[in-house]
Amino acid sequence: MKASLDIEALSQQIQIDSAFVDDIREETSQLVVGQTNMIDKLLIGLLADGHILLEGLPGLAKTLAVNTLSKAIDASFQRIQFTPDLLPSDIIGTMIFNPATNQFSVQKGPIFANFILADEINRAPAKVQSALLESMQEKQVTIGKETFQLEKPFLVLATQNPIDQEGTYPLPEAQADRFMLKIKIDYPSLEDERLVMQRSLDNSFSRKVQAVVTKDVVSKAKESVRKIYMDEKIENYILDIVFATRYPEKYGLDSIKPLIEFGGSPRATINLAKASKALAFLNRRAFVIPEDIRSISKEILRHRIGISYEAEAENITQEDIIDQILNAVQVP
After folding, report:
1. Which residue positions in the chain have pLDDT lower than 70?
2. What is the pLDDT of residues 61-80, one digit of tens each?
3. Cis peptide before 84 (omega within 30 of 0)
4. What pLDDT, on the 0 to 100 scale, is given for residue 108?
5. Is 248 exposed, middle or buried (0-12, 13-18, 19+ CB in 10 A)?
6. Which strands sit side by side in the sheet containing 77-81, from one edge to the other?
7. What is the pTM of this model?
8. 3-state SS, residue 108
9. What pLDDT sits at residue 2?
10. CB-based contacts of 191: which residues, under 8 Å, 6+ apart?
């Protein structure tokens, strides 16, 4: 009886704490047309304290979406264009000598913002990628002898262009694993693109984004996300899905074992649990259901499963493997 009362009380609290979600969706939709799925996934990353890898062709509003979201929650935004000649100091900052005072002072880099858009992260060398990923993991930056904590919320969104791969440095699996979600962005529908065209012609996109929520409200929402109830059966379901990527033969999936080079890491398990709680929050629920797990699984797992040469030869993708796993693993 007490458990049901606790869930009921938490449900009421979730209804209050999640009220701002509709305001953000409404405000961002004024500028970002036809990408509601991307906005929701960005909110999941924000609420679950996870960074996001965005993959999509140029012109699909990736930069606009992140910038608009940051303004809607009254947060700071920095865009870093990754290029082959970029240095770690260009991201985190450096020590500058001041001849007037005869002393060194810290010049902070663009990493000191709430939302960081790392544009075309695969165009920069490994040492630059590592500098960014260290900041993501530790939530702090060391310049000289000083260590600086990064302001919360801190969300990195790195973009990758799926075409024009000449002269790029693909993210190693161990580094890609640090991103909670990998979102693939597709073209808008014909009607959405018609609306984009019309709004561009009548200058509707020039309107200023209004701050509809504060960072304090987002921080409170994160606390509510952590409290969302997850049953033991749901925990087992998450574990089964991740373990099926490592040992498919134990789940009656002998046919896909030769297609998998390596499965999801423990980060996959942790992030699948966190993201499913955030998704339940967006849906105004105080508990996680299996559909939350299923609907976010591809974003969590697609960059954590290595496929073999045999899979590549047969044009089998990570998404195909995830579909087979979701169909095979028993739903609680």
Report:
1. 1-5, 162-169, 204-206
2. 778 888 888 888 888 888 88
3. no
4. 84
5. buried
6. 77-81, 115-119, 155-160, 52-55, 181-184
7. 0.86
8. strand
9. 41
10. none
DSSP E strand boundaries for the chain? 52-55, 77-81, 93-98, 103-108, 115-119, 140-143, 146-149, 155-160, 181-184, 260-262, 306-307
Residue 5 has which token pair?
């009362």
Name the nearest CA neighbour of 263 among 272, 43, 63.
272
Cβ burial of 308 (10 Å; 0-12, 13-18, 19+) is: middle
Residue type, position 5, single letter: L
Cα separation, 178 vs 270, whole angstroms: 11
Q: Which domains does the chain have, with CATH numbers?
A: 33-202 (3.40.50.300), 228-328 (1.10.8.80)
How far, in Å, CA of 145 to CA of 11, rounded? 47
Question: What pLDDT does residue 83 have?
Answer: 84
Q: Going by C-beta distance under 8 Å and a sequence separation of 6 or more, which residues neighbour residue 274? A: 48, 49, 50, 180, 225
> Residue 187 carries which DSSP code?
P
Please name the helix (run of DSSP H) or strand (run of DSSP E) that holds residue 313, with its range, or none: helix 309-313
